[in-house]
Amino acid sequence: MTIQVAVQVGGVQAFPMTDTPRTRARQAVLDPDEAAELDRLARALQKRVEAADQARAELAKAAGRIAARHGRGGAGAVGARVGWSRQHVLTLAAEHGSNGEEVAA
């Protein structure tokens, strides 16, 4: 049994809804060249993501160290330079002592 419901949206009848189960279209089969190209690009992207993560961690460490070394006003200056909030840089600076030395966790 199929139930159809007409829906009015802004004076226009929307697509009818049914209780008929939907089926998925068959998945296409990629040829070997297409699969190899996608695999190559996915690997390249993963390497770049990992490099970006490492660079972000190095930037955060340097930002915290520099902000801690400059004390009052350092977090604002560092944050403005790298586009981060003063509060975020203060959090990074808290990992360093007042002289910029890294504090053991």
TrEMBL record:
It comes from the Bacteria. Residues 35-62 form a coiled coil. Keywords: Coiled coil. This is Uncharacterized protein. The lineage of its organism: Bacteria, Bacillati, Actinomycetota, Actinomycetes, Kitasatosporales.
